[in-house]
Amino acid sequence: MCIAGGRVEDLTATKAPHITSQSSDRTMVRRVMTHDHLFYQGDERDFIYVVQSGWVKLYRTLIDGQRQVVGFANPGSILGLESDGEHTSGCEAITAATVRAIPVSRLAEVCRQDAAFAEHILRQIGRQLGAAQAQLATVGAQSADQKLATFLLSIADLCNVSPAGDFDLPMRRGDMAEFLGLRLETISRKMSDFQRRGWITMTSLYHCRLVRREVLEDLAAGGDLEDATMLRVS
Question: Could you give the residue ranges of the DSSP H alpha helices within the chain?
Fold first, then answer.
C-alpha cells in the first residue's frame, strides 16, 4: 500500500531545534483544515513537509479531469520527496492536520546537522518505494476482497489498533475506491459483506473494529473469499 508513516516525535523542535531556528513564519508549523490543500499538483516544490498530526491524501488529476488517489500520509510522514522542481501530486487534508514546513533550500543543511533526521528521510524514501511497489501488485493482481482486506489491515496498523481491534478510518469511501482502483459501489458492497460475515464491525461511519483479523490476513495474502471461515453474528 502506498501509505506512509513514521515516528514524528523524533523530529520535534525539542530534539531538532535547528529545524525551526532562524526561520520565518512560512517555515514553522502550519495547520490545515479538513479538505484544505497543503499544495496542488504543479506547484513549485519550495518546501518538504513533516506531518505532525492528522491525515492527508495525495492525488493526481488525470488528463480527463478525474482524480486518482495515489497515497495517504499519517503522522511521521514526509511529503514532497517524490518530485524535484514541481509537486507531481496534490495534497489535501482528510482530517484537520498539522505539518512542519522545511525549505528545500535548507534540506541539505538540516541533514548535515541532524543525522537522525537524514536517516529518517532515507527510511521514508525506502518505505514509499516499497509501498508503491506493493500498490502496483495490489491493483494488478488482487481481487476486490483482497484489496479491501489489505487496505484495512494497513490502516489499522498505522492507527495503532487497540487490543480490541478498534481504529478510525480517516478517509471517505470514495477516497478508498480511488486509491484501490475500485468503484464506490464496490467498496460499499464489500464493506457491508465483511460486516455480514462478521469479519469487521463498523461502530460508526469512520470507526472500525477488526473482529476476525486472521481472516483478513488470509485474504490479503491471496486467500479466496469462499474459503474463509464464516462467523455468524448473533
Answer: 107-113, 115-141, 144-158, 173-180, 184-196, 213-220
User: Which tens digits make up the pLDDT trace of 183-219?
Assistant: 999 999 999 999 999 999 998 888 999 999 999 999 9
> CATH no. for residue 26?
2.60.120.10
Q: Which of 74, 106, 139 is the last residue of a domain?
A: 139
Cβ atoms < 10 Å from Cβ of 18? 15
Stretch 208-234: mean pLDDT: 77
Res 139: pLDDT: 65
- The CA-to-CA distance between both ends of the chain, in Å, stands at 33
Distance (Å, rounded) from C-alpha 16 to C-alpha 178? 37
Residue 228 domain flag: no
Let me know whether 114 and 216 are in one domain. Answer: no
Q: Which residue has the cell 460499499?
A: 188
CA 28: distance to chain centroid? 23
95-140 confidence digits (pLDDT tens) = 999 999 989 888 888 888 888 888 888 888 787 777 777 777 666 6
CB of 197 within 8 A of CB of 216? Answer: no
Dmax (CA) of the chain: 61
CA dihedral 36, 97, 58, 8 (to 10 degrees): 160
State how many domains the chain has.
Answer: 2
Q: Are 49 and 87 contained in the same domain?
A: yes
